[in-house]
Amino acid sequence: MSRRRTLNIPSAVSSDQEDEDVFGGDYEPGQYALSTHGATGAGGSVVAELTGADLSTPLSVAQLPTPYDVAETVTAPLTEHERGHLAVCEQALHGFRKSVVVAGKALEVISRGRLYRETHGTFVEYLDDVWEIRKSQAYRMIEAWPVAAAGSPIGDINEGQARELRPVLQTYGQEAAVALYREVKELRGDRRVTAADLAEARAVLPPPTQLARPDQVRDVLTVAAAEGRAPRLAPPAPQVPAQASGEHQADEAGRGDVGQEKEMDEGAEAIAVLEAALAQQRQIYDQVGGGVLAAALLYDSGRGEHLRHQLRQYANRTAYRMRGASEGQEASNA
Question: Number of folded domains in the chain?
Answer without folding.
Answer: 2
